[in-house]
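Lecture notes, unit on binding sites. The following record was shown on slide 14. It pairs a sequence with S-adenosyl-L-homocysteine.
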Amino acid sequence: MVQKIDTPADPRPALLDLSPDELKALLTSWGQPAFRAGQIYQHLWVRLADSVDAMTDLPAALREQLARETRIGGLTLKVVKSGDDGLTRKAVWTLRGGETIESVLMIYPDRATVCVSSQAGCPMGCVFCATAKLGFLKDLTGGEIAQQVLWAARELKRIGAANDYDPRSRHKVDASNFPKHLSNVVFMGMGEPFNNYDNWWNSIEKLHDPKGFNMGARSFTVSTVGLIPGIQRLMQSGMQVNLAISLHAVDDEARVAMMPVNKRYPIGDLLDAVEEFTRVTGRRVSFEYVLLDHQNDSPAEAEKLAGLLRSRKGLVSHVNLIPWNPVRDTGLSRSTRDRINQFRDILENRGVPATIRIQRGVDIDAACGQLAGDLAQPHAAPPA
Ligand code: SAH
């Protein structure tokens, strides 16, 4: 399961970082015919090769040169942890500089989602999030972001073929409904995608390429703390990528205390931008709202949230309530199941569709906001 480990400082270019034209340029600079680039591209993005050895239709000398002078991707897989009876897998990777990032594959009946990281660490400083405690370490490249998705697609196939999970688990996945393909990519791992917009977008283009991995735009969901320039760029792209906004509070004072980014982009401006996004793209936007006990989970706050979203006629939205996953040394605690349900019921009764996010990966520290190595509280129980 662990691929060949290169030294972290490995300076060789990563094939997954190259565009088809760059790959062609590299191969022709080696004196190879251009069609070899097409073959390699197929191996990487269609057959999901994770080593040059699998590219058996290439001449042996070329395979050797590839292995010597390039690497497949910039990330090195360290370990894969298994949770939820084998239906959640967390990959722990290192970057060339030794920084750690994580990705999570979640398998459900008839669908599978991978949650990928866009940065090592994160500069946004949200007080309730484990990744924020690391501070900002490094931007991932487009190839490194995409590499996590290719891993998930490969891992999904392997798990299905080997029946490497418990078919009697409460997650109700068995041979009859085991997903054949990766259905969704959510950019909700470590980092803020819109703080690394160009590389994030590059990963979308790579994964979307009909000649390559060919994933539909609607299979992607990007989550942001609310960086308005990113929302506008996505809106102007014309691509039908889904947008999720981490809201988490209903007034600016409370939101600034939780999310420093709110000083720069306060709630009113953020909702203006989201309203425009909905008007231009016709897409329903989702709002994430992490529930913290007696911090942001009162009935009055649920009423206010419903009012805020209903008052904007152009907004077609949906609220995703996330029971907070414990992070050490935050002094915070998660809402009780009763308060979570009450919050949801108020939203629903006021006409705002709301769902409570199903928890995955808690047993392997792979749940939302827990991606930071050992900073999250290990083995936290689900909400009471
Ligand atoms: N930076 C982006 C994407 C990463 S986080 C963003 O903030 O939207 C994905 C979601 O998990 C965000 O809504 C984030 O606020 C939430 N989250 C962070 N820490 C959490 C925790 N400890 N428990 C539950 N959700 C958390």
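Take-home: The pocket of S-adenosyl-L-homocysteine is lined by residues 126, 128-129, 188, 192, 223-225, 246, 288, 290, 322, 324-325, 327, 368-369 (CB under 6 Å).
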